[in-house]
Write a structure and sequence with these properties.
The complex is a heterotrimer of chains A (about 280), B (about 800) and C (about 160).
Chain A lengths: L6 E3 L4 H10 L4 E4 L5 H6 L7 E4 L9 E4 L2 E5 L4 H5 L10 H7 L4 H4 L4 H7 L5 H8 L3 E7 L5 E7 H4 E3 L2 E2 L6 E8 L6 E7 L9 E8 L4 E7 L6 E3 L3 H6 L2 H10 L6 H19 L1
Parallel strand pairs in A: 1-3, 2-3
Antiparallel strand pairs in A: 4-5, 5-10, 6-7, 6-10, 8-9, 11-12, 12-13, 13-14
Chain B lengths: L20 H5 L15 E7 L5 E7 L8 E2 L10 E2 L11 E2 L6 E2 L5 E7 L2 H10 L1 E6 L6 H6 L13 E7 L4 H6 L2 E8 L2 E2 L8 E7 L4 E6 L4 H12 L6 E4 L15 H13 L3 E4 L2 H6 L4 E2 L1 E9 L5 E11 L12 H9 L8 E9 L14 H19 L3 H8 L8 E2 L5 E2 L4 H12 L1 H11 L8 E13 L3 H4 L11 E7 L5 E5 L8 H13 L6 E5 L16 H28 L6 E4 L2 E4 L5 E3 H10 L14 E6 L7 E13 L6 E11 L6 H21 L30 E5 L16 H4 L1 H12 L14 H21 L6
Parallel strand pairs in B: 1-15, 13-14, 18-19, 24-25, 31-32
Antiparallel strand pairs in B: 1-7, 2-6, 2-8, 3-7, 4-5, 9-19, 10-17, 11-16, 12-13, 12-15, 17-18, 20-21, 22-30, 23-24, 23-29, 26-27, 27-28, 30-31
Helix pairs in contact in B: 9-10, 9-19, 14-15, 17-19
Chain C lengths: L3 E7 L2 E7 L5 H8 L18 E4 L2 E4 L12 E3 L8 H12 L9 H14 L5 H7 L11 H19 L1
Parallel strand pairs in C: 1-5
Antiparallel strand pairs in C: 1-2, 3-4, 3-5
Helix pairs in contact in C: 2-3, 2-5, 3-5
Classes of the chains: A alpha+beta (about 280), B alpha+beta (about 800), C alpha+beta (about 160).
Chain lengths: ~280, ~800, ~160
């Protein structure tokens, strides 16, 4: 299975990358860590005319901690988060999620930003960023060759399976996460056929009493994850029927088997958070 | 039971580390994908995207016509024909590139050649094919009973073959106290070795011979098939199987790709290469398993099996593959369903049905895995009805050691074995009592805790089938005597040449151990050459766990002859009667050890000092071709009892194996370490069959898994390390008492695991009857059971939970 | 398509070649450099047979474009002849019968070495989990796990001395 042919560039500046993309007459795609693009190229499911690699753009690989917010460059790898090369501000939540993504060889190259842009409903970061209420920054170039940036909340970023608010000519540059206060509790449970596979069901739970934050996110649905804010009654009751009813009310489409998986994942994530 | 010595340092019985490891551990294996010939071009195939259609047109891309070939271009090439002599068998013609019709998704329609595989795929993408689609034949039951269309129109139906063993059941039906009937099903799978198929070939003008490197298990058979299809005599063809990355039956086939590449290399006068990629491996080439059983078993009031009645269907796919043919899997069902049990009545019909799917090949265990699943699930169900422990029903029904050799109800000749001991050992090692206690505490209707279950399966594994039992199939291959060519080098090494092939079995080590046992030579001085039709004696190859019995026997035989010749020379040189000499520490020695000559010294005399040889020396010297067949060639019977304890998560349907025990007997083990490796490797595949692997086809005949993300192969977290208990009942017929053991590990697990899951779910009255036992199936069955439980409670007036 | 000049370090040697953008790192190494120790099992990143080191990190060469490795250090199995941990692992693999056909073995060794160096206190469950990205169809993993556990143990004993 060999890829179709394409042109390739690896600019060092964000501006150059944006211009290459917006000026390209043909079908051009950005390349991050390549762990999702690689298989698609080999299977010829993606046949772009041009690939613009972002790997030389330093800004996308930095991180900084400022005013109780951690900002990660979009090309931060899963392994960097797993190994806590990036400071952990989530009481072990993000390293835990990272350590359970695919396999180490994939984690060494795959990126947080790439995963969010690819927007596979079963991707771990998609659900996790929603429960963390992360802020995503993306940029594009205007007609005067100036870089314009805009921010979106994680819950607004993904529109559907493999579809996001990111426009063709935009690059996701960073993801900002609030630092957890001392009383933050988290839980994360995913149901897979075997470790490393894409999940059938993902549940992420965050409870921060001091900030009145009680969130449940259910991922690995057919579309965007379902975010339940004000989830405190569900967290304390762990009532299967109520959880199920809430999910369905919020638009979950699932057959009986899938529904049972989803409810089980939510309950087990809550148990993990609340113990 | 003979004594078991797992710590023997040398020869037969030693757990020697493998000689072949060295190159694999350093990345120096020579797989076919690593072979480069100067000027080599690469091939990509255009494959059918539809399952059943007339080929209306194939249009080659403009300017690239000379790089695209269809069947019209392959003049003189004949289709693959794997006939049998079984009455009523209908044969299929498989054109290497489709002609007029395609009968499976993935069937090759055109061949494209270019300097690189990527460029060849570019060309393939531009070939325009038009199909007139026909209704797809996907379900094997309706394919036979009410076919939507005919896979092979001239047949009049979709039936390759009907196999029958007719028996009168009236007696057992009259006395039976128990009668259980069920429908059971196994899934279609793909064998998925880590390396797929691959071919490199080139015509050699000096030798006037086609040289083909192929990832193959049976190179002499590939050679024969190529000869038939290309119209070349066999002497014009040399097939070399280099290092091969796993077989399991997948590589025991003459491929249309091999025929195409052979033709192309002659046509172009250049070397050509095709390497099967994973998508091709999963969706286009041979499948395996997929049986359906409608089975009834009868039991008496003494806790014994009385007999079996069965109608079975095997989905054989679109074509009869060469050489095993579309008869083998289904016809085997009829003859092996009785397993290791005694019974008084047996009636079985098996249909081998054609469908629009890739052809079937016998996968590790052949039909035994499915047959074992069907029968052993029934046995557990009957034990439950009889209110006895499942292992007790087995003990009451198994053929006993005292009765061996035993000819069973289908005429299978069981050579030796203590099946009862295997069951007892497995049950004891699993400690069923412990699990029963845990079940009593934990398995509750209103609990969220996982449900515990235990299950077992007993099976036998016939291997090293010989002429007497194999010729009856009439397929393009009948095993006869197996040869070994053995030669001492001038400096005292031994070169062994065998026609079978080693692709994981460790024959380069174990056959050296056999040589050590007979000839006393250090295995490090023994080279085993295999897989090359020019360099090795004819053999039907590696299949049916035959190598240690057949090649091992041939090696022993050849070494025995060599030993006699060498001893005679030594006797002359030492002036001692050869009868007084023996071999020890790589020397021929006198009985008091005072006089000796090394093997190397003796070889030196033959090659460099013939003047010192005895006048009546055998002129054939230090080269021997010996042939071998076991005393009775109906096949060896290994067997085992698998016992498993597991838990079922009733919220997710996930199955976790908690303990796995295998009590097995493969006769005398040549290398116990390698035997264990075969068993555990088989277990992994059995777990795949039981819980994870299925290649489903939709109504249009489209395969539903095209990547390893969809087709789930067991990984290190799915396969526990089992407890293995070795029994060693020698075969009375083979050189050292060894039996074939390659497949057993893959036979038992689906049955044992299904029985354990059913045991766990028995408090809900749920029974899984279809493989693989996925979470979806478990939760669906539980949900139905819970619904009717609640409804029963409501009706009974109990309080709603 | 514009061919690209690629400069990288392979097994300690500087290499400069002209490549197509679409060529995977695996194909570049196997076909252009004739380093055939790295095997292709799936070309979609699942089976692990193609695992090698890029800048010291185990990575999938089948879904990595060679051109993205410009200025990077790539190490294939051929570069680990004298590596201390790899030598211990090879001995352990042979002792515990951790290979049969050998096709998954080089990728398996790469991952095993990473486990031994990165997670020196791994227990068996953790080792098995870390092996999830390396499929083997022959051995059933028992020998592989035993070999890695053996190397972990002997290295731990050495450190504690």
């Amino acid at each position: 299975m060999k890829s179709a042919a394409f042109e390739f560039t690896a600019p060092e500046l964000l501006l150059n990358a944006l211009e290459l993309q917006s000026q390209s007459p043909s079908y051009s795609k950005f390349l991050g860590g390549g762990q999702s693009m690689g298989p698609m190229l080999n299977l010829r499911l993606a046949q772009p005319d041009q690939l613009v690699s972002l790997q030389r753009i330093g800004e996308l690989k930095t991180h900084h901690l400022k005013e109780s917010k951690l900002t990660l460059g979009a090309l931060t790898t899963h392994a960097q988060i797993e190994d806590q090369v990036i400071p952990d501000v989530t009481h072990g939540f993000m390293p835990y999620v990272a350590a359970n993504i695919a396999y180490r060889a994939i984690r060494n190259q795959g990126t947080l930003g790439g995963s969010l842009c690819h927007a596979d409903p079963a991707a771990d970061w998609v659900s996790t960023m929603m429960v963390l209420d992360a802020r995503l920054e993306m940029c594009h170039v205007d007609e005067n060759s100036r870089i314009e940036r805009r921010q979106l909340a994680a819950c607004d970023f993904m529109l559907g399976a493999f579809t996001t608010q990111l426009q063709e000519h935009e690059i996701l540059t960073s993801i900002t996460i609030p630092v957890f206060p001392a009383d933050a509790k988290w839980g994360y449970y995913k149901i897979c056929q075997k470790p490393g596979e894409f999940a059938r069901s993902i549940a992420a739970v965050l409870s921060i009493e001091s900030q009145s934050i009680h969130r449940i996110v259910l991922g690995a649905t057919t579309s965007t994850p379902i975010l339940i804010n004000e989830a405190k009654p569900l967290l304390s009751s762990m009532d299967k029927a109520r959880i199920q009813a809430t999910l369905i009310e919020m638009g979950l489409e699932a057959d009986e088997f899938e529904l049972q998986n989803h409810v089980t994942a939510v309950i087990r994530a809550i148990k993990m958070a609340m113990q | 039971m003979s004594t078991l010595n797992l710590n023997k340092p040398t020869g037969v019985g030693a757990s020697l580390q493998r000689k072949e490891d060295k190159r694999f551990l350093t990345g120096r294996g020579e797989y076919v994908g690593n072979i480069h010939l100067p000027g080599m071009l690469e091939v990509a195939f255009v494959r059918s995207s539809v399952a059943h259609a007339h080929l209306r047109s194939i249009v080659k891309p403009a300017g690239l016509e000379s790089q695209v070939f269809t069947m019209q271009d392959l003049k003189g090439v004949k289709p693959i024909l794997a006939q049998t002599q079984l009455e009523g068998f209908k044969s299929s013609s498989q054109w290497p590139l489709a002609k007029d019709k395609v009968r499976q998704v993935g069937e090759m329609v055109a061949m494209c050649v270019a300097p690189t595989r990527a460029q060849a795929e570019d060309i393939a993408q531009q070939v325009m094919v038009e199909y007139d689609e026909l209704p797809s034949v996907v379900d094997m039951i309706t394919a036979r009973t009410s076919p939507p269309s005919l896979v092979h129109e001239h047949w009049g139906d979709n039936l390759f073959l009907t196999s029958k063993k007719t028996g009168d059941l009236s007696y057992i039906q009259s006395i039976a106290k128990h009668k259980i009937t069920k429908q059971l099903k196994t899934a279609r799978q793909v064998m998925s070795p880590m390396e797929g198929r691959g071919v490199v070939c080139q015509w050699n003008d000096r030798l006037e011979q086609l040289l083909m490197y192929s990832a193959a298990q049976m190179p002499h058979i590939n050679r024969a098939g190529l000869s038939e299809c290309l119209g070349l005599d066999q002497a014009s063809i040399r097939v070399v199987a280099p290092d091969v990355g796993g077989g399991f039956g997948y590589k025991g086939i003459l491929l249309p790709e091999e025929i195409c590449l052979a033709w192309l290399s002659i046509h172009l006068g250049k070397p050509v290469k095709w390497i099967e990629d994973r998508r091709e491996q999963l969706t286009a080439n041979a499948n395996c398993r997929e049986h359906a059983y409608d089975i009834t078993i009868y039991g008496d009031d003494q806790g014994r099996l009385l007999g079996i009645e069965c109608e079975a269907t095997v989905d054989s796919g679109a074509y009869s593959s060469y050489p095993f043919s579309a008869c083998l899997e289904a016809a085997q069902v009829v003859s092996i369903l009785p397993g290791p049990y005694k019974m008084q009545g047996y009636d079985c019909t098996a249909w081998s049905v054609a469908t629009n799917k890739p052809p079937i090949l016998p996968y590790r265990g052949v039909a035994r895995t499915d047959v074992c699943f069907a029968l052993e699930v029934m046995m557990d169900a009957m034990a439950k009805e009889m209110n006895i422990e499942p292992y007790q029903l087995r003990l009451n029904s198994l053929i006993s050691q005292e009765e061996m050799p035993y000819d069973n109800i289908t005429g299978k000749h069981f050579d030796s074995g203590n099946y009862h001991l295997a069951v007892e050992k497995a049950v004891e090692a699993l400690d069923i009592k412990k699990w029963r206690l845990l079940q009593q505490r934990q398995n509750k209707i209103d609990s969220d805790e996982p449900l515990i279950g235990v299950g077992l399966a007993v099976y036998c594994e016939q291997a090293a089938h010989g002429t007497s039992v194999y010729h009856g199939w009439g397929i393009p291959m009948v095993p006869g005597h197996e040869q070994c060519h053995a030669r001492m080098t001038p400096d005292g090494s031994l070169e062994l040449r065998i026609g079978a092939h080693s692709h994981g079995q460790g024959l380069e080590t174990t056959l050296a151990q056999v040589a050590q046992e007979v000839l006393g030579i250090d295995p490090d001085r023994v080279r085993v050459l295999h897989g090359d039709t020019a360099m090795t004696p004819y053999s039907t190859g590696t299949w049916g766990s035959r190598c240690m019995v057949m090649s091992g026997g041939a090696v022993a035989q050849a070494c025995q002859v060599l030993l006699e010749r060498i001893t005679k020379i030594a006797g002359h040189l030492l002036n001692i009667d050869p009868k007084e000499l023996h071999i020890k520490n790589q020397c021929i020695q006198s009985s008091d050890g005072q006089q000796s000559l090394t093997l190397a010294e003796l070889c030196h005399v033959w090659y460099r000092q013939p003047q010192r040889l005895p006048p009546d020396v055998d002129p054939a010297g230090l080269e021997v071709t010996a042939g071998y067949k076991p005393k009775v060639d109906t096949g060896t019977f290994s067997y085992a009892c698998h016992a498993v304890a597991l838990s079922v998560d009733t919220s997710t349907g996930a199955v976790s194996i908690l303990d796995y025990v295998i009590a097995e007997d493969a006769g005398v083990m040549v290398n116990p370490m390698i035997v264990e490796g075969q068993i555990i490797g088989g277990l992994a595949q059995g777990i795949g069959t039981a819980l994870y692997e299925e290649m489903n086809y939709d109504e249009q005949g489209q395969p539903q898994a095209s990547t390893l993300a969809d087709y789930c192969l067991p990984g290190a977290t799915e396969v526990p390390t089992p407890t293995i208990i070795h029994l060693e009942t020698p075969s009375p017929y083979t050189s050292f008492g060894q039996k074939g053991i390659g497949e057993g590990g893959a036979i038992g697990p689906p049955a044992a695991i299904a029985n354990a899951v059913n045991d766990a779910l028995s408090l809900w009255g749920v029974e899984m009857t279809e493989l693989p036992i996925t979470p979806r199936k478990i939760l669906s069955s539980l949900s139905k059971a819970k619904a009717s439980h609640i409804s029963r409670e409501i009706h009974a007036g109990a309080t709603t939970p | 398509m514009q061919p690209i000049v690629l400069n990288l370090e392979v097994n300690g040697q500087s290499v400069e070649r002209i490549v197509q953008a679409r060529t995977s790192l695996a194909d570049f190494l196997r076909e252009d450099l004739r380093l055939s120790g790295t095997n292709l099992g799936c070309e979609h990143g699942v089976c692990g047979a193609c695992t090698l080191e890029i800048d010291g990190a185990p990575s999938r060469s089948c879904i990595t474009l060679a051109v993205t490795c410009d200025s990077k250090k790539v190490r294939t199995i051929e570069d680990f002849q004298n590596d201390e941990v790899m030598t211990e692992l090879r001995q352990a693999f042979s002792k515990e019968h951790a290979l049969q056909c050998g096709y998954c073995t080089t990728g398996m060794l790469m991952t095993a070495r990473d486990i031994v160096l990165r997670i020196p206190f791994a227990d068996e469950a953790r080792v098995r989990k870390e092996l999830a990205g390396n499929l083997c169809r022959c051995t059933g993993y028992a020998g592989i796990v035993k070999a890695i556990m053996g190397v972990l143990k002997s290295r731990a004993e050495l450190t504690s001395q």
